[in-house]
Batch of 3 targets.
Target 1
Amino acid sequence: MAAELTTAIVLRTIEFSETSLVVHLLTRDFGQLAALAKGARRPKSSFEGSLDLLAVCRVVLIRKSSDALDLLTEAKLQRRFRGAEKSLQRLYAGYYVAEMLRLLTDNHDPHPALYDAAIDALGQIDGTGNPAATLLGFEAAALRLLGHAPTTRQCADCGNTVPRDRRMPFAPIAGGVVCPQCRSRQVSIVNVAVATVEQLEQLLAPHTRQPVTVSASVYAELRGLLNRYIQAILGTMPRMQPFLPARMEPDA
Ligand SMILES: [Zn+2]
């Protein structure tokens, strides 16, 4: 099989043998995949320490057709993730991005725009961006690009326009805001301020780019809402979710 060249974010590494690693990558051109990096644990390997969590690399892969692991033959470091050097909050934010990418995307299903959004978010997180706001912007972009965007105007159940009251019922399992007629049918409802729904709508807009701005007064409610919505989509709670910022520090 021919070798293929792409860029990738390292999402996870697992020790495979004395000398090798299995590396989970989000590649820009081939989506998520797991590849065997032979000899990567040797002190003087050709990977030269490029396979750290959240590192961005130029990689050469030999793709395997069946369920077998792809083979990683080369990885050249483009950018190392330095969140850990700055704060625990930035480190956890980075871990959360990696976990979201692993849980939300399928193997060999490329989403170049999501890859680019992740690169932008990681740049903010290990740079000077606000990690709490950056994550909300990244999650909104990921949900939109993967076809999981919650409804903010139309009832997620019947499709009618939902009146903009001071607080609006949001049904995570149905997939967004719901109208008064459908409300009683929902398994679970979160009542959120209209300002929170409007902030979410802004973050979901296709033209939104990092760095995003999020109003501190709606942050906690929006964080809680997205937590529940993402749990509903995944059917499980992401491991890093309890470590996300509960409040938005002006300068985290
Ligand atoms: Zn309805």
Target 2
Amino acid sequence: MSILDMVREAGVIGAGGAGFPTHAKLASKAEYILLNGAECEPLLRVDQQLMRMFPDEIIKGFESAGKLVGANKALIGIKGKHKEVISILRNRIEELQVGDFIEVKEIPDIYPAGDEQVLVHELTGRVVPEMGIPISVGCVVVNAETALNIYHASMGVPVTEKYITVAGDIPKRLTVKVPVGTPVIDVLKLSGIENFDDYTVIDGGPMMGPVKSDVDGYVTKKNKGFVILKKDHPLIRKKSVSIEQAKRVNRSSCEQCRMCTDMCPRYLLGHSTQPHKMMRALNYALKNVEEQKIAQLCCQCNLCELFSCPAGLYPKSANLYFKGKLAEQNIKYKPMKSEFTTRKSREYRLVPSKRLIARLGLHDFDRPAPMTEVQVNPEEVHIATRQHVGAPAVPIVNVGDHVELGQQIGKIPEGSLSAAIHASISGTVVECGNDFIVIRRG
Ligand code: SF4
Ligand code: SF4
């Protein structure tokens, strides 16, 4: 079986949060393969630890990915502040004699360094065009944990576990490996908190992760971290505002200073994203939203809403509002040109992570979350059929079947973009629906 087929069979998807099926990504041809080791979301600590613990596996997985896309060069992007990890990776690249192909490049400690388009620019100097993806400029980007999973796939091992950081205002910060399908509450309780009545959980990083409405749910291959904060933490209050509330506040308070636009990472890359214009447009009862098409260029990094706006308003939400309206009217932005260059002011307007963390009120929680061996042995796992971009996996097991750890239980539907799913524990299938396959241990 080819490596690409092995990656497909192993159900590898983008582990950085996007969940794009990796076999589909690696079917492209590219000049560069880039490893996203930026981990720019504050408090999350998965990738930097994986690169320290499994450098050979990650380098080999990354090399395989690079060969698959036919890349001339493979670049690992990692923040310069992670000196130890950089040194380990450079040593291992030399030892493994892949230095002609793979190189570690240091990137600045800014937010959002891990946004694919920012990473592409920092590593290659190229700018992904508006509405484009990295392949538009000859690049394919894979996350560090994805590279590890590609290596495992090449050894015939499917994705059945997920690394997750548990962080925030909690007694115990840690990073753990748990079976896919584990109840989220089992992971949250590793924080040392038993009763979550006074807490709210962010699913993912504090910048882009949504606030969870409860502590239910099951771990998927996309989870990267849970940030637990007191309910009255300003970040929770800010992130819990509904789009209707945001619209009301936005209308009455925007002073059109355009800081949201001037500091927008996509605007600084040369795109036409201009959230202050979306704020202005909120004041009018517009039937035709054609003019607001630029809202579609927003990547929802949240910088404008959680950092840039001096009035504490919601420009990202204004973008989101118009994105919704544009989708309803089936209007799509069309770029006026295909080549973009960064704005001159970019170098002065990059946002250092430290300042961002302070602004978010997370300084006291910006601590290590060490990788910890824990026994999370859920009695039941709920494995979602859709953990990825594309169509859900189609179950290939039935209620009552006994399955072994690593056995494929859901396949890619014919001709679709999708990813296979596998049993993350050995046991009996007790439910098999369109959304979940439930396995009971034993
Ligand atoms: S949303 Fe905030 S940053 Fe943007 S123009 Fe209005 S006041 Fe200025
Ligand atoms: S969320 Fe705000 S800062 Fe981020 S891309 Fe969108 S408009 Fe720009």
Target 3
Amino acid sequence: MTAVHSTRMLVLGSGPAGLSAAIYGARAGLSPIVVQGLQPGGQLTITTDVENYPGFRDVIQGPWLMEEMQAQAEHVGAQMMWDTIVEVDLSERPFRLKGDGGTTYVCDTLVIATGAQAKWLGAPGEAELGGKGVSACATCDGFFYRGKKVAVIGGGNTAVEEALYLTNHSHDVTLIHRRDSLRAEKILQERLFKHHAISTLWNKEVARFVEGEGAAGLVAIELRDTVTGEISQLEVDGGFVAIGHSPATEVFKGTGLDLDDEGYINAQPGTSLTNIPGVFACGDVMDKVYRQAITAAGTGCMAALDAERFLQAADFPVPEDAIAGHPVDPLIEHETVAG
Ligand SMILES: Cc1cc2nc3c(=O)[nH]c(=O)nc-3n(C[C@H](O)[C@H](O)[C@H](O)COP(=O)(O)OP(=O)(O)OC[C@H]3O[C@@H](n4cnc5c(N)ncnc54)[C@H](O)[C@@H]3O)c2cc1C
């Protein structure tokens, strides 16, 4: 026997985008169900200090911020499900999705907020020094390295943009690349090469991230020459891995949802609308430019408002309880079917 949960708005993902969509959806009377996925709270749960989320003068902790967002979403009526979606059928409305334990979710609108994970090198010391000198986000963490020596690892647009961004804080930025030329667009390369604060190290790959005595955080990066095999060390305070991101859209392949060639969801410019009416996308899964908690939260709000307008225009029947001001508990609506 497996459960079936029905809702007017199903939200996939519980990062800033998904939880913001849930808050707005609940307050619009849509009784959203949030499927949290394998990382409840999203990417901010794996960081410590957050200094750029508006509303907090003091430094706050990423996991705390996400607990507060979840508590707010639940407070206004969103239901959290500890589940991960493994099957998606968007061929007709209501849409049908399946969780990894066999639970079925039936929804009039679907908000996809599954995020994108930074790719890591897998080098020794990288995971251990995450947040202690090793980062995958210059916009998020560059400020912590004011006046310090930093390195960026990568050769594409992201790496060059991260290196240029870091010159706002550091006069000593080294770009490390395992080949002897960059993949980044020519205009970005020109800006990089003429910047007085940036130097490049060619044909070098990271052998390991080196921690200082007494758990002092990152102090150097050990490099291996990809041509000669020679080992060297670059002393740095911060190492930024910039080798790309993987949007969490594997489960949508073959469903008819329009993805770009990197797997990001294509949303109509300035909206959260996808190519499938009733399906909305928000946060890092549809944004490869900004990738911030505040932009994810902003697009999450847009997705909920777009979903609400879609339901209004589609003239979907509104449950009696919702009209009376008592949002329908989607878990009460569930039916039980043979599995
Ligand atoms: C180390 C680190 C530090 C950062 N620091 C900052 C910072 O200081 N300031 C800032 O603004 N930004 C920061 N960011 C970036 C910020 O975390 C992201 O931009 C933001 O979390 C994106 O939000 P999101 O909701 O789109 O996705 P995510 O936070 O990635 O959340 C995705 C959610 O989708 C769920 N999910 C995935 N697949 C499925 C599925 N199949 N079924 C159900 N659920 C699924 C996951 O479990 C997760 O809950 C940082 C990122 C990292 C990695």
